[in-house]
């Protein structure tokens, strides 16, 4: 059964180009030209992955609203912002709203397809039989790589697909510093430092919502990040 990709893009020419490209890869593409039509469809049935432009018709931030709706309906559905707006503010806003990736439209089609495939590979792990090696247990942290679940002090933490794999990369070798490049390799990301920093900040914030004293994700300046034994 082919994966269903929602494409929320108001530019008709671009929309048709990406429908053609994604269809050739075997995906079923569900195109939407504006926020309203997308939100109505998502309220009835969720896609397997969503690619969203930020500016939609006369709504300059319409894509952000679509992302928020999707994230409220599913904590793990992969969401990619795909936009012509290339600035730190929009990148940070998009990731804070729970997107797994933020790509600009000047990237190559193979790059986009690789990101989509990587996100699908990660979500498909949820359905595989569990093995002991899939579980990370360090202190009060428990991570299950197959079910993509995280708990801290017995309480569940809701992470996006990308947030999960970034934390997994840090926590599975507790005490070891992971460079930004290693985090990108683990989560199949090709992003700038600002994007990685935004993901790390969001991960910390989610832990601190249930434990205000949480400080186990340590920034090692000039080197990267590590999980402290705490």
From TrEMBL:
SMART domains: REC, Trans_reg_C. The modification 4-aspartylphosphate is found at residue 53. Residues 133-229 form the OmpR/PhoB-type domain. The keyword Lyase does not apply. Keywords: DNA-binding, Phosphoprotein, Transcription, Transcription regulation, Two-component regulatory system. Pfam families: Response_reg (PF00072), Trans_reg_C (PF00486). Residues 133-229 bind DNA. CDD domains: trans_reg_C (cd00383). It comes from the Bacteria. NCBIfam families: marine_sort_RR. This is Proteobacterial dedicated sortase system response regulator.
């Amino acid at each position: 059964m082919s994966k269903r990709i929602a494409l929320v893009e108001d530019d008709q020419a671009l929309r048709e180009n990406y429908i053609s490209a994604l269809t050739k890869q075997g995906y079923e593409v569900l195109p939407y030209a504006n926020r309203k039509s997308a939100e109505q469809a998502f309220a009835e049935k969720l896609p397997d992955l969503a690619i969203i432009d930020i500016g939609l018709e006369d709504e300059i931030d319409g894509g952000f609203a679509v992302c928020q709706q999707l994230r409220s309906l599913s904590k793990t559905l992969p969401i990619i912002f795909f936009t012509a707006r290339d600035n730190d503010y929009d990148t940070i806003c998009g990731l804070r709203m729970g997107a797994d990736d933020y790509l600009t439209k000047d990237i190559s089609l193979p790059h986009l397809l690789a990101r989509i495939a990587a996100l699908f590979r990660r979500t498909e792990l949820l359905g595989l039989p569990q093995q002991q090696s899939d579980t990370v247990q360090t202190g009060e942290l428990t991570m299950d790589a197959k079910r993509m679940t995280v708990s801290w002090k017995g309480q569940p933490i809701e992470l996006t697909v990308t947030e999960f794999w970034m934390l997994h990369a840090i926590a599975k070798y507790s005490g070891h510093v992971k460079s930004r490049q290693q985090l990108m390799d683990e989560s199949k990301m090709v992003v700038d430092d600002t994007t990685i920093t935004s993901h790390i900040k969001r991960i910390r914030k989610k832990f601190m919502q249930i434990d205000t004293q949480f400080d186990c994700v340590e920034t090692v300046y000039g080197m990267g990040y590590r999980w402290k034994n705490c």
